[in-house]
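Inputs:
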Amino acid sequence: MKIRAITLNNVRRFTDPAQVTGIGDGINVLSEPNEHGKSTLFDAIQALFFKPFGSRDKEVSALRPHAGGAPEVTIEVETEAGRFALHKRWFQKPLATVHREGKLIAQADEAEAWIAQLLGGDAGGPSGLIWVRQGMTALTGGSTKEEKLALEARRDLMTSVGAEVEAMTGGRRMDKALAQCREELAQYATSTGRPRTGGPWKEAQDQVEALTATRDQLAATARALQDALAERQRARRALAELEAPEVVAERREKLEAARAAHAAATRHAEEMEALSRAVELARLNAESATSRLDSYRAGEAEQKAARRAEAAAREAAEAARAALSDRRATLEAAEAAAAEARTALKAAEDDHRHALRARAARDGADRRQALEARIKEAEDARRRMESAAAAAKSDPDAAALQRLERLSAELSASRAARDAAAPQVTVRYAPNQSGAIHGDDGPLADGTPLPLPRRTILRIDGIGELEVEPGAGGGKDGSVDAAATRLQTALDEIGAADLAQARAAGAARVEAAARQGEAKAVLASLAPDGIDALHQALAAIPAPEEVSGAPDLAQAEDALQTAQAAHERCRIARETAAEALADAKAEAAGKEAQLASLSDRLQRAEAQQAKLGDATEENLAAQTVTTAAALEAARLAHAEKAKDAPDAASLQAALTRAESVETQAREEIARLHPLLARLSERITRASGDAVEERLAETEDQLQAAEAALARIAHEVAVLSRLQEALQDARNEARERYFTPIVKELKPLLQLLWPDAELTWGEESLLPHALIREGREEPIEVLSGGTQEQVALLVRLAFARMLARAGRIAPVILDDALVFTDDDRIERMFDALHRQAGDMQIIVLTCRQRAFRALGGQALRLQAVVP
Amino acid sequence: MTFRFIHASDLHIGRKFANIPQAPDGNIRGRLMEARHGAIAKLAQAARGHGAAHVLLAGDTFDTATPSASVLRQALTAMGEAAEVTWWLLPGNHDNLRDAEPLWEVIARDAPPNLRALTENAPVEMAEGVSLLPCPVAFRAGASDPSAPLDRMHSPEGHMRIGLAHGGVTDFTDSEEAIAPDRDQRARLDYLALGDWHGRMAVSDRVHYCGTPEQDRFKHGRRGVCLAVEIAGPGARPKVEEAETGSFLWSEAEVTLHPRQDVAAALQALLPETGRRDHLLRVKAGGWASLPDRAALAQAAQACAPDFAHFELLTDGLGTQYEAADLDEIDRGGALRMAAETLVNEAQSETLPPSDRDVAADALARLHAYVQGART
């Protein structure tokens, strides 16, 4: 179906017939400002298609003009069957008719049925119209009935393209199965698949855990009981073995035997010990006898030797004493000679000193004279230097002179300036009258101009005085006086009467400075270290001494040398003699000491022999033989005893072992008795607790609990698997169901958002979220512009699906793009044109400027020309 | 000289059956436990019935090495009360000499006079001209034939020799620690009374397992018995007669299903008409069943279970046959059908591990049950 013309009469402000004609295929745009009746047109179209002619409801009433009357709408449509005019009138004389080419083919209810058929299409097909009302951004909206109709339309469309949604997704049965599955699963598990607290799964797990713990504990107790039983058996056996009478008796016998053997061995050892001591005693006796004999013999020999040595020493001592007295005499002689030589040497030395002093006195007088002269010269130079220095200081220096010269030049300059400015008189004397006129400075020179800077009196000889007054402006600046004063002051400062004197004084100063330099150089050469140094040098020269009768120095020196040599010889002789004496003394002392010691030795030897008393060598020798025999006898006895000695160490070991066996047995018995008591107590307690019985029971319970847990785990797995299978199947079915519309929509969406997708609501058959760049945004939270764009695109896609099904439906857009910005509008226009093709799109808009770019067929709503 | 006695073993008094599921308000465990104690009276009665003055218990009289005091005391008292019978107790592996030493000490100390504990490997003259040759078990797990000492046990010339031992025979385990089946010949026994095997079995004319007088497992399929033995004299062939003592019947039944069978009826056909209260029944289902059949089988089992002392249905061996019609019952198309097909593929996959296949199969069965529930 395509709409070709619309005529309104008595609809709101159109009290006169108005119409839109020439509605073509593709895009048609009715672009008018507000209040020009676009919405009226939209409502009228809707009323014609959806309001029965008998309706008086709110919406139909809203179509009536203020003045009242019966609204009439006529729409011409073109279908495959031809061109029809549909006409409806409400309120007065309500009417519905369908004409084909001016021929009435249906009216009243039949006409309504015809229209419904047109809208519904064939075989319960989709609604023929796709509407987008002004400002309706949401996909849903309008009255409940409209929504329901729209849903039905969508459902019909989708189903006709694909399959029944319920059939696809399983619908209520699927929901119920899934709900039941989830409910059953929720009894066992949380949403994350963990056992739910308080649920049977968790309970079964807990029970298995608890029973396992109990089982382990009971098993441990049972094991402990079995161990205790085994240990008690071992202990009993051990005790029985230890306490058996024959075992006890055997142990005791062994111990006794070991003790007896050990005692015998001890006794034998004691006897051995006594024999050992006897042997030792005999050995001592024998040794003592031998040693006495030896010492007797040694004493005799010593006595003889000592006597011989003492005699020899005595002779040597005598000889040494004689030698000593000889040496002493020799020394005395040497000392006398030495004293003599010393006297002679002293005399020679005195003479020599005397001669030396005399010569020194001569040398000192000459040096003194020279030095005194030099001091005088130096002092003279110093005086000169000092006077020149004083002169150099008093006179003006070069700087002062320079200043004077400058001041003088300034004075001259001032004067010249003044005179140049002052009136001048020049005298030209008559003959012989030269010098007849006198100024302040004497007679005026002829022809020489005399400036007169101030009042001046010229005395003219013989005539009187001529007073000249230069008048105002002359000589009053005072600069000459000032310069003169400055010069005079400077001169006064240096005490000079005038410049010439000052210059002379300056020259004198220069000259004095030169003199000072010279004197200073002389002084420096004469006394480089200062005059005081010269005075000191002078003072160092010994005072002259009167020397008389001094011997000749050379002779004195010879005599001194001779005396010295003699003295040296005597001194050496004396020292040699002294040394010889000392040696002799030492020799003598040594001999004396030797003699003394040998005398002592002799005395000792004699005393030693005396101690032996009347023992003789013969009876001492006899004793030696006797004691040696006794020793041999003792040794033999000891060896005899040692031959049959028992092994004391091994007997001791045997005894120790026997004792320890007994001790161990006793200790073991002492340990085993309480151990047995403890074990028995433990066994009684555990067996009284019926631990094995409870263990058996617990094991059975655990087995049952584990089986229950396995069953439940299986059940959970089954339910989880079922839930997953159901969800997967439903999602897949849903996807499959929405494939056709998604396919239509995809190129449209991509005009605006590349790679964008929509997800679809199974109930509403409308998109519920936009997926852009992987993010899912529910439609409700999108901006108004985006929402209306999505809404429009979705409708276009539906229309496209209709068109593909061969049922073209006009898409009527009443200011559908309110929130869309200019850039998007361009792209929406692209979408519209893309869809237009063999479809019909009627755009109603007040945005004339924005929609100018849309192009398409322009429509006008205008009065019908009668 | 005819000698009569009762041969019994494996009373396992004190066994608690904690592995048998018990409804919160049920007491099957208590009843089972009580039945074990009741075996004493049954044995005494059997002895009286057969004119026997002796009851030989071939081991495992008690379930554990340390039974609780009441279990032990009440057992001893019950034996004491059967005063006309002499009870001969042999330690078995459960009440072996080492682990159960305290038990045997208590018995030695407190037992009634008509009870004799056989804790020594030594012949006992139990009646005039009759030597009892006991082989008490020393440890829970022995490493040798427990009946081996019988060969070396001497008895007075002309005595009847009756061996008493506890353990398996070679026929079953083929190992060194088993009892030689020809022990009677090797040890010149007139009769060898064996314990340990809970089912009744005659190894040879002279060698017998009596089984437990009160069953405790499904495999034997009959109530427990004891043996009334009569021996005319040394060398005479013993006359062995079974006397039923068990109060509970433990049994196992198998049913092989095939698709499109009335599974409830098949199950019903297996069930006994009477005695269900004292019957512990395990049904093993095999063969193939469709999804609805499985559900029906489970429902039928659930329905009959309360009749029994214990009822369990094992479906490990039952394969599921997925038919298009079953899947159609879930849905003919759409997501439910997709889910169902995914699960069928997984359940029949040859690459997935069996556990995953089981999970998928059960998930499918569950889905089927959901959809069926939703439909009804």
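The interface with chain A takes residues 14-19, 21, 63-69, 71, 98-99, 101-103, 331, 333-339, 342-343, 358-360, 362-364, 366-367, 370-371, 373-374 of chain B (CB under 8 Å). Flag for discussion at group meeting.
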